[in-house]
Write a structure and sequence with these properties.
CATH superfamily of the largest domain: GAF domain
Number of strands: 5
Order of helices and strands: HHHHHEHEHHHEEEH
Strand content: 5-15%
Shape: elongated
Largest sheet: 5 strands, antiparallel
Number of domains: 2
Radius of gyration: 30 Å
CATH topology of the largest domain: Beta-Lactamase
C-alpha cells in the first residue's frame, strides 16, 4: 500500500508529475487497449453481422436494439481492458518513480560519505579526532541511506579490534570495541554496561560467523545477514541485553573486497547495521554488495586508526 506521505516524498503532488501521469498512464493504457491482439476474437465485419443475426434468432428485438446491445457489450469489454492496463501501467510507473527517488538519494548520500573519507585520506597526517569525526559522519550518513531504503529505523556502528590477531594468535579470541555509532543511538546503545563489557568475537553470533567466512576464504559473501534475529536459536550478543532492540541485522568485515592471502591484510573490524523491522534487508540484490563496498571504503582509514592506536601504546 502506497501511503499519502510516501506520495508526498516522491513529489507526487507536483504539477509536472501530474501532467506526466496523465499523458503517460492514460495514453499508454489507451494504446494498450486498442491493440489488435486484444480484439482478434471479434473477427471481421461479417463476423459482427453474424453475431447480430444470431442474437436476433434468440431474442425478439429490432435490429437497432440488437446493435445497441452489441455496442454496449463492446464498450463494457473496452472498459474492462482499459481498467486492467491502467492499473498495470499506474503500478509500474509509481514503482519506478519510487525506486528512482530512493536510489537517487542513496547515490547522493554515498557521494557525500566517500568525499569525507577521501578528504581525510589525502591529509599527510591525521589525528584520532579526525578519524572519529569522519566515522561519526559515516555512520550518520549510512543510517540515513538505510533508513530510506528499508523504511525503518536503522542503527549503524563500527567495531574495531583492541589488538591485532597476530598478537593474540587466534582471530576468534580478538576483543572488539565500538568506536563510532550514529548520533541517534549513542545514548540508547552505548550504556555504561555496554562500555564495560568484554566484546569477544566468540561471544557474538554475527561476528563469529563473519570471521569464520573470512578465515575459510569463502567465495560466498563474508556477510552475516539475518532478517529475523528474535527467532534465531542460541543467538549470542555481548551487549548485555536480555533481548536485543532490533529485528534484522547485517554485519560485514572491514577488509578489502579483493585481496591475496588473509595474513597479508589487517582486520579493520566490523561494519554493523541493524533495523527495528523484520525482513529489512535484501539478501538477493543490492544490500550485501553495497555494504561490502562501504566496508571496503572504510578499510584504509581504519588501518590508519589502528596505526595511530599502536603509536600511542
Amino acid at each position: 500500500m502506497i501511503t499519502a506521505w510516501r506520495f508526498h516524498r516522491i513529489g507526487f503532488r507536483d504539477c509536472n508529475v501530474h501532467t506526466f501521469f496523465i499523458m503517460s498512464i492514460f495514453g499508454k493504457s489507451f494504446q494498450d487497449t486498442i491493440k489488435r491482439k486484444n480484439w482478434y476474437w471479434i473477427g471481421s465485419v461479417p463476423g459482427i453481422l453474424t453475431a447480430i443475426s444470431c442474437l436476433q434468432s434468440f431474442v425478439e428485438l429490432k435490429w437497432w436494439q440488437n446493435l445497441l446491445v452489441l455496442g454496449c457489450t463492446f464498450v463494457v469489454i473496452f472498459i474492462l481492458f482499459y481498467g486492467y492496463y491502467f492499473l498495470r501501467n499506474a503500478y509500474g510507473w509509481i514503482h519506478n518513480v519510487m525506486v528512482e527517488s530512493i536510489w537517487g538519494e542513496i547515490i547522493k548520500v554515498l557521494a557525500e560519505v566517500y568525499a569525507k573519507i577521501h578528504e581525510i585520506e589525502r591529509k599527510e597526517s591525521i589525528t584520532e579526532r579526525d578519524v572519529a569525526d569522519v566515522l561519526s559522519t559515516f555512520c550518520n550518513k549510512v543510517k540515513q541511506l538505510f533508513d530510506k531504503k528499508t523504511d525503518s529505523d536503522c542503527c549503524v556502528s563500527i567495531k574495531v579490534p583492541i589488538s591485532h590477531y597476530s598478537v593474540s594468535g587466534e582471530w576468534e579470541s580478538i576483543q572488539v570495541k565500538n568506536v563510532s555509532r550514529d548520533q541517534k543511538h549513542i545514548s540508547e546503545r552505548d550504556t555504561p554496561d555496554y562500555k564495560s563489557a568484554n566484546h569477544n568475537i566468540v561471544g557474538n553470533t554475527a561476528y563469529s560467523y563473519v570471521i569464520s567466512m573470512v578465515l575459510k576464504e569463502s567465495s560466498k559473501p563474508r556477510v552475516y545477514l539475518e532478517n529475523d534475529v528474535q527467532s534465531v536459536a542460541n543467538y549470542l550478543t555481548s551487549s548485555g541485553r536480555i533481548e536485543v532492540p532490533y529485528q534484522s541485522e547485517l554485519v560485514v568485515p572491514i577488509i578489502p573486497s579483493c585481496y591475496g592471502k588473509i595474513d597479508e591484510i589487517y582486520f579493520g573490524g566490523f561494519l554493523c547495521i541493524d533495523s527495528d523491522k523484520k525482513n529489512a534487508f535484501d539478501p538477493d540484490h543490492y544490500d550485501i554488495p553495497m555494504t561490502i563496498g562501504l566496508a571496503d571504503g572504510l578499510y584504509t582509514i581504519m588501518h590508519k586508526l589502528i596505526d595511530i592506536n599502536k603509536n600511542k601504546q
